[in-house]
Amino acid sequence: MRCFRPRSSKAVDEVDRTAVVVEKRQASQNQQVSRDVGAGWEAGAQQGPKAQLSRIMRPNDANIVGNVHGGIILKMIEEAGCIIGTRHCNTQNGDRCLAALVRVEKTEFLSPVFIGEVAHVTAEITYTSKHSLEVQVKVKAENILTGNEKLANKAALWYVPCSLQNVDKIMEVPPIKYASEEQEEEGRKRYEAQKMDRLETKARIEEVVPPPPNQEQHTVGFSQSSLIHLVGPSDCTLHNYVHGGVTMKLMDEVAGIVAARHCNTNIVTASVDAINFHRKIKKGCVVTVTGRLTFVSNKSMEIEVLVDASSLVDAEKGKYRAVSAFFTFISLDKDNKPLPVPPLKIDGEEEQRRFDEGKARYLQNKAKRLADKERQQ
Question: Signal sequence span per UniProt (predicted)?
C-alpha cells in the first residue's frame, strides 16, 4: 500500500488523453523487445533473455490519495518474471511448462508511481540452476508528458518450471551463457543463499494465527488485520493455481492496513523482505491473509504477513501456511516527511520473541544499506 501526496485532478484527467500515445509507443517497444530477446538467444544469451511490460497507471491502480499501490507494482513485477521464465523454459524439447514463483528477494520501493505515469517493467534472467532460475526486475516510472523517468523498484525473483501435464513435476531449466566466470559464480552464491533461507523459513513457519482479543491502541492485537479472499479463475495460472503477483498484492494491502491502524497517519511501503512461497494455492481455495506488527523502530514498522489457505468444499483438509514475508512501512506527515512511529506495546513472551527477532533483522538490513552505500561511493 503506497500513500504519498494527493495528485491533482489534472493528472487524472490527462490519463485518457495520453493513452493513445502510450499504446503507440508500447507497440514500438514491444517490437524492439522481441528483436532484442531473439538477438540475445541467437548470441548465446550472454546477458540472459529479457522481457518488458509497460502500462499506464489508472485511477483503479491507486489508493484514495492518488498514488499507485505497492501491490500493483509487485503484481506487475511477478507477471514480467513469469513471462520471461516460462518463455525461456519452453525453448527446449519436452513437456510444455509454466514458471511458478517460489521466492522474491528483498524488494526496495525507491520512488512512488503516480496515476498517469507509465510503469516500464524490465525482466532479465541472470542465473539458472538445474531446476530453477533467477529473474532480476527493474521498474521505471515515466511521465510521458514531460519525459521525466525515475527508477521505482528493483527485485530478484526465483522460479521453478512446472509441467503442464503434471503440476508436481519440476522440469529442467535450459542453461544460459554468462559474460564471465565471475558472473556465474556470483549467481551460484545467490542461489545457494536463497535455497538455505527458504529451507530455514519453511522449518519455522507457525500454525494458523489466532484472532486477537480486544486490545488497547499501539498493541499488536489492536492493529492486527486479516483479509479473506476466494481464489477465482482470474487469479490463476494455466495450472489453476493462484498467481504469485495476486498473492503479493493482497499481502501489501493487509500490511498497509496494519501500519495505518498503528500510526493513524499517511503510510508508505518502504521495502519487502524475502517472500517465500511454501505451498501452492488452488482455484476455489479461501485464503486468509493476516498481518501483525513484529517490530517498531523510531521511523519504521516491520509487519509480518502470513497467507493461510483452505479448500472451500473440503474443509476436513484444514488450513495450511502458503506464503510468508515481512513488509516495512514508514509514517508520513502531510508534506510526505517521515514521522516518528508510536512505540509498540509488548504483551507476553511470544510477542517479545518476535520483537527481538525483528530488531535483529532491522539492524542487519541497516548495516547492509550502509555497506552498499559505501561501495557505491
Answer: none
- Distance, in Å, from the CA atom of 133 to the CA atom of 86, rounded to the nearest integer, reads 10
Question: pLDDT-derived band of residue 1, with 50, 70 and 90 as boundaries?
Answer: low
Which is the catalytic residue, given 235, 252, 273, 308?
252
Task: Tell me the three cell numbers of residue 326.
Answer: 515481512
The C-alpha cell of 86 is what? 516460462
Cα 115 from Cα 60, distance rounded (Å): 9
Q: How far apart are CA 87 and CA 122, in angstroms?
A: 15
**DSSP three-state, residue 67:** strand
Q: Are 74 and 119 in contact (CB under 8 A)?
A: no
Alpha helices in the chain (DSSP H): 9-42, 70-89, 181-204, 220-223, 244-263, 349-376
Cβ within 8 Å of residue 58, ≥6 positions away: 15, 115
DSSP for residue 170: B
* Region of 272 on the Ramachandran plot (φ > 0 left; ψ -120 to 50 alpha; else beta): beta
Confidence (pLDDT) at 47: 52
- Three-state DSSP at 46 gives coil
Among 63, 143, 240, 365, the one annotated catalytic: 63
The count of C-alpha atoms lying within 13 angstroms of the C-alpha of 57, restricted to the half-sphere facing its C-beta, is 30
Question: What is the distance between the alpha carbons of residues 1 and 61, in angstroms, rounded to a whole number?
Answer: 11
State the Cα–Cα distance between residues 194 and 80, nearest whole angstrom: 20
HSE-CB at 319 with a 13 A cutoff on CA atoms is: 16
Q: Which residue has the cell 529479457?
A: 50
Residues with Cβ < 8 Å from 164, sequence gap 6 or more? 95, 96, 97, 98, 238, 239
Burial tier of 198 (Cβ tally within 10 Å: 0-12, 13-18, 19+) = middle
| In contact, 364 and 318? CB cutoff 8 Å | no
Each residue of 51-78: pLDDT tens digit? 899 999 999 888 777 778 888 999 999 9
**Helices then strands (H, E): number in the chain?**
6, 12
Whole-prediction pTM value? 0.76
Amino acid identity at 77: I
